[in-house]
Design goal:
Elements (H helix, E strand, L loop, with lengths): L1 E8 L12 E5 L7 H9 L6 H20 L4 E3 L3 E9 L13 E10 L1 H5 L5 E4 L11 H12 L7 H8 L3 H13 L3 E5 L4 E5 H4 L1
Parallel strand pairs: 1-6
Antiparallel strand pairs: 1-2, 3-4, 4-5, 7-8
């Protein structure tokens, strides 16, 4: 077993004009849900998968209850969960009211023993890139122009594969192209098609 990682560029800062520095990030391939955990735990216990799933769901509800009452939740061997708050900036405490305060996050602090268990794992750099290519606006416009010479429309997945982007980056870049008036969206929410505005003019 090994932890796979890839290198990602930090967001560039216009003020320094320097090339962005790279940092390592774990490559996640999937998400283990409650059902997956229940089936895996079943292999290490005499409980049924259905009983374990029910217990995990009950644990989640119990943690929400305890956190809502201002208590920290400590799961031995795992770590401590607690709520963090945020509020609108104010110079005096009297100006901070309940309607200007909200839950910012659920903070998790892992136990030292948990972190130690990962120290013995190998860390391996992936061969296949799992993040977006760094394409300039000009390069992306050229790719789309060539694509639309032989295609009437493009889907999000086709755009993603054409430009070598991740799903989230592809969606963000498509929305930018729509805002700039370069693409127009057609179709349903779950399966939209995008056409070139230049070809429609």
């Amino acid at each position: 077993m090994g932890i796979k990682y890839d290198l990602y560029a930090n967001p560039p800062r216009k003020e320094d004009g320097k090339n962005p520095k790279l940092h390592a990030r774990v490559v996640t391939t999937d998400t283990a849900g409650t059902k997956d955990l229940a089936e895996l735990i079943q292999q290490f216990s005499s409980l049924s998968s259905a009983d374990i799933k029910a217990a995990l769901i009950a644990l989640t509800k119990t943690m929400v209850f305890e956190l809502s009452y201002g208590r920290k939740v400590h799961l031995e061997g795992l770590g401590v969960f607690e709520l963090s708050l945020s509020s609108l900036p104010a110079e005096e405490g009297e100006n901070v009211r309940s309607e200007t305060v909200w839950v910012k996050n659920v903070v998790f602090r892992p136990e030292k023993e948990l972190k130690k268990k990962f120290q013995t794992l190998d860390i391996v750099r992936v061969e296949r890139k799992n993040h977006s290519k760094q394409l300039s606006e000009k390069k992306m416009d050229k790719l789309l122009a060539d694509y639309f010479k032989s295609h009437p429309f493009i889907t999000r997945l086709q755009f993603q594969q054409l430009c070598g982007l991740t799903r989230s980056t592809a969606i963000r870049r498509i929305n930018t192209l729509i805002t700039e008036g370069k693409l127009r969206r057609y179709g349903f929410y779950r399966a939209p098609l995008y056409v070139s505005m230049e070809l429609q003019e």
